[in-house]
Specification:
With 90 residues, the protein is mainly α. The chain has helices at residues 2-9, 22-38, 44-58; strands spanning 78-79, 86-87.
């Protein structure tokens, strides 16, 4: 629940209280994607999350808290990172 609190508080950058960065989570997530592919499990949901990770990393958030992914989850494909709305290219 710490990530939910960080999102609600707007604390999205990596700091001493961050449990793990986007980059660290993405490394583990890629292993999960490989397992899904290897075992014939649908990759629809993992592919959607992969797009979120890639967008956050491309926008310079690799070392920020995992909670920053919340800013890339808008249905219209827009990001509100830093309070500014901008398209997120995937």
């Amino acid at each position: 629940m710490e990530d939910v609190k960080r999102i609600n508080d707007g604390r999205l950058v990596g700091d001493e209280s961050a449990l793990a960065t986007v980059d660290a989570h993405y490394g583990a997530f890629r292993c999960l994607m490989d397992l899904c592919k290897e075992r014939g499990i649908s990759q629809v949901v993992p592919n959607a999350f992969d797009q979120l990770f890639r967008a956050a990393i491309k926008a310079g958030h690799a070392q920020d808290d995992f909670a920053v992914l919340s800013k890339f989850m808008r249905a219209d494909g827009e990001s509100t990172v830093g309070g500014l709305e901008k398209p997120v290219a995937t």
